[in-house]
Amino acid sequence: MKPLRLLLTVMLLLLSPLAQAELRVSNAFGEHMVLQQEMPIRVWGWADPGATVVVGLDDGAKVSSISIKAGDDGKWLAELPARKAEGKTCTLQIVSGDATIKLSDILLGEVWICSGQSNMEWPVSKAANSAAEIANADHPTIRLFNVPEHIKQATPQDDAQAAPWQVCSPETVGGFSAVGYYFGRELNRSLNVPIGLVGTNWGGQKIELFTPPAGFAQVKDIEKLAGNTSGMKEASMIYNGMVAGLTPMSARGAIWYQGESNAADGLKYDTLKEALVKGWRSEFKNEELSFYWVQLADFGKGHSGKPEGGGWGPVREAQRRALRITNTGMAVTMDIGDAGNIHPTNKQEVGKRLSLWALAKNYGKGIAYSGPLYKSHEIKGDKVIIHFDHVGGGLMAGTKGGENRMDPVRETPGAELLAFSLRDNDGTWHFARAVIDGDTVVVSSEEVSKPTAVRYAYDSDPDVNFYNKEGLPASPFSAEK
Description:
The longest helix is centred in the middle third of the chain and has 15 residues, at 269-283. The protein is built from eleven helices and 25 strands. It folds into three domains: 22-106, Immunoglobulin-like (Sandwich); 108-361, SGNH hydrolase (Rossmann fold, 3-Layer(aba) Sandwich); 373-480, no CATH class. The N and C termini lie far apart (96 Å). By secondary structure, the protein is α+β, with helices and mostly antiparallel strands. The chain is elongated and about 85 Å long. It is 20% helix and 29% strand.
């Protein structure tokens, strides 16, 4: 009987909840990660259905913990109270039955998602001055997580793709998004808090593929894209395969560089961007999620050379118009592109300009964060007077040169502004003369006696020289009465 009793004992142990406990945490979590400070800390994973799961965060001086039960499907979600970054290293521990997961070297700080197509995916190793930048990338309080595989899925994936969180160093930074890294580096230097960067990118892809159905459903005229019920058969598929598993991670915001693949959509891109922003805010369970994007840089493809413009002009105008969405911002890059290369290599300036928006809007820094943005205009006789937001210390004509356009902007006093056009009352567009007058720009043309509309840099690759005194470029625009 003794062997039988032993066998029964082993069987009972195997059938017991303690022995059978199955516990895992989402792949979005790992050692060396950054958790968003000053927001509820959401942690999720899977255990036995109905099992009790205890999640705790310990910084050596303070422990916060919560006990929750896994659902019938085994999934659990814990929400720890918000904590402030205090420079301490934390340990995240998850326990269910006899199973324990322990993740060390975790920091509290600021988390930002970096997403888009190839110009966001473009790595540090291929950007300007890469050798020096990589050699100097010793930033132990910047942490990197990069979604590794390009995957499209018909349904949202429950978990993030498996990838390690990495401490930023010369050994790890080379393959990460250059725009994302330079953005995060600026925040890290200015705020002196840890920065977590989550990269999820795929070159050559349209914005609709990154947008969840919840986003389409909230925007008039494109609701039909929800559920792939239109000609866009792959709508939401990149979101499903590369973003859904990251939700509902707590994060301060997202930076976005995309639009080349949607250039033909022109002004429609405004509503497509609205769907993306609203959809991500819904899925990340954060209606205040900041969203800052890059306006497409100058590029020669599709350059019309006509006064009415064309090419990439309309999609840039849509990107500007989308600033009507709350808690958004836009880095203008019309002066740092490359007419012959759709992947301009000066990603340092792109990341810095995005960081200015975050530093000013999210972190209260009293700095200029945008170049001139069209506000309004008035027609007086044969002239159009344009008013701008973000005049800063004043308007100026300037130039940005050097290899990869990396030199600081130099003012060129007295120069006329380039790339302005006026439309006459017969509908014909003409190139026009534009001069700075205080905080306004006055536009006129000998060929236009009764102007009805004005445009600036409304083309794929126009020559531009319009800045504010802080050296931030004006956004292209098209304005009509």
